## 1
Amino acid sequence: MMKRLVFRIAVIISVLIPLGVATYEVLVSGKDSVVFLENYPPALGYAVLIYYGILLTGGLIWLIAQLKSLIRLKNENIQYELMHLNGQVNPHFFFNVLNNLYGLTAKNPPKAQELILKLSDMMRYSLHEGKKKRVPLTGEIHYLKNYIELHRMRYHKKISVDFISDAEEGLTVTPLLFIILLENAFKHGVENLRENAFVNVYLAAGTRQLHFRVENNFDPQEVPGDSGGIGLENLKRRLELLYPGRHQLKLTAHENIYQAELILERP
């Protein structure tokens, strides 16, 4: 507040100086025209020039500080939005698994225990690794495979799942980007099919690009993709914030086959 007051006073003074000099020249000296600081002592002229130099420098410093403040605020808003979006990642999946656990604890305790361990591993990953900017790609693959295994244990029907990964060692990736696409394959494909359900997952990563593709069959009477949910909108917004101009998300449906493909340009 004090800085703003000082700055405003300095601006007012800078306006009053030439006005005061001009008024004095016209009213007191009787001149028809005024040349600023004409016939004034050189010391006064230098003092006025130094004052305006300091004022200009101070104005530039203030402008730079305001721009930095705006950039910082924008980054903070982006981080807050990302945290909010991360918190919305597949919560209903965990609730569905917990509902399954309730029945399994009495009917099949060993299977329920295995389910609890995998669910705990996934929740731990979502809570801790999901907050990080980058995680090892191997950890993300393990998370996706755990998700697939939990679905295998949930259903009382045969599911064909093929997971192929081809990635270089030591690569990192933004966490929890792929789970939405994999979740949709089960939610809108496997869950609505009584038999012959399949999900094919392909992940390849090199030094320049990361390529993730999920393919599944679905009931032609059902709407494929993410109908009525926030999953895909969540993912699209996260990609806009994290990979602006450096991603491609392609969603296609042909007959009873749905394919989601995500390509990320590596930094």
## 2
Amino acid sequence: MNLFPQRVTQAIKHCAAALSMAAFGVTALAQETQSLPDLVPFEASYTAYKWDDDIGGASMKLESLAENQYSLTYSSDVSKFFLSDERFEHSIFFVRGHEIEPYEYHYKRTGTGPDTELDIQFTKQPEPTVQIGQKEDLPWQGELDNQLYRIDIARQLAAGNEKLSYQFINYRGEKREYGIKVMGPETLSLPYGKLKTIKVKLVRDNNSRETYAWFAPKLDYNLVRLRQFKDGDEQGDIKLNAYRHL
């Protein structure tokens, strides 16, 4: 019986990690087949599932702050029995030409177990540097922050680009690199309704974990579903239930 809370805690953490979508990353390396579309501010909400149960939800919001400056927020709140996990991410960034340029990133996690926070600043002068909370600064070599892939993948798919690779600083302040494999079209029945989507798979060195994401052309190519497995066991599954332009 003592192992049961531990297993549930691990399940909640894995699901929350999937919900935070921290597995993805960052700087797209793609050949342009056409111009990338302009960003369209939006708000989306998702229902979270684990073991086929509704365990909470997530939301994503892209807002325009000023000319070429944007805010992207992502939050998730999941619970199972007496265990909970709540996460929040906030990015402030610029779009210069076709490039997404991070400026600030903030992460906070509360719930069962230790609470964590992280603040990251990307600076160009006097040298390109990533300032990571109380950690030692890192040289900035074009990496994005932990969540900007969410809008960059949409832009790349809309432009017909399929050869994508991302380098980023994750929510632990570590440099990571992943690829994106476009698997093809798939029609989904979601709480939002039926949508034609493009399915992609995250490509990384850790073969024990698999992450899939679906993007809908009808909704500005934005994310409508995310599902993650570890060693064949589902860790989390979020599905779009509402979407609107801002």
